[in-house]
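Hi Y.,

Following your request, here is the sequence exactly as I used it, all 365 residues.
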Amino acid sequence: MKRNSMKKVLCLIDGLGSGGAQRQLVGLANLLQCKGYDVLFVWYHKKDFYRKDLEINGIKYEQIHAKDVFRKFWRIKKVINCFKPDVVISYLGGPNKASCFLKILGLRSKVIVSERAVLQKIDRNQKIKFFLYHWADYIVSNAQEQTDLINRNFSSLQNKTVTIRNFVDTKYFCPSKNQTEHDGIHILVVGRIAKQKNIERFMRAVNIAISHGTNIFVKWYGGTSFGQENYKEEVEKLRQEDRLSERFVFYPPSNNILEEYQQCDVFCLPSLFEGFPNVVCEAMSCGKPVLCSDVNDNAVIVHDKENGFLFDPKSVDDMAEKMEIFCNLSKDERLEMGKRSREIAIESLSGESFVSKYINLIEEV
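Below is the corresponding structure, written out as tokens. Let me know if you'd prefer a different format.
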């Protein structure tokens, strides 16, 4: 693959909170830098959960401080004018629209925008965003279902839309040699406190499973999404009403989530919809079975009854049943599922394949 080793790439995202899109773009920046690209990482919200990762890997970065959307836009423009990137890679709606606006205003850099969740509805805002995508050079979806939806609903964009699924660092996210023995089955969930994550139904399912004698404990790690503060209060109230306080605990985002993956018995993601969930990939890479919603591209990596169980996220009973079935497996059967998860992660989710696909887009004329 012929390329200019010092080609400049600017990675743009709204903030560096603890979400999956942030983890993937920080990882992409590091992989590109390791391949010889000159990378600058830019964000504009206050959250900087992954700043340390940029610093550890020696990636140049700039956090933009501005109070309103117009000042943010012009400061992004100023940073881009100073850095003069050959390529701008943006993740999430706001940065994607900003990149396309800059292209309209004469930006000569190649622009690659990335969609990180599957479309749930096509409202006015979505129509505006996808109209602006006509100025992007490529649109990257992290789920095939999202690519298919774009192709069906915005057919004029299909020649520039590609699927690049998320990657996981299988060397870092690896099984522990020392599994701590504990009472019962410990379920780990990592995700924002948001309605999309289907927390109320999941809590009811956990309560049903416990009422049937299943000895389970749940740890949920994640911050509260902006505008979802009332929802956090609702699920906390439900946790108390269902008398789950001893068995179901919410924790803030952790900088040492690896240890939590390694020490749990099973990972669960009950979301109503996703793109291609990082947390499932990371848990699998750590050798854990997965209980997961049968939505979007989840079935690509979670093979029902092979390395976990899929369930209908809108059915509390189905969720509870799959939890009970898993908990009734023997220890050896659960370990075998975890081994298969690790195998799938190594086979399908490598960073090398991920970055190579981006390099193809960067270098293609």
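The longest strand covers residues 8-13.

Thanks again,
Q.
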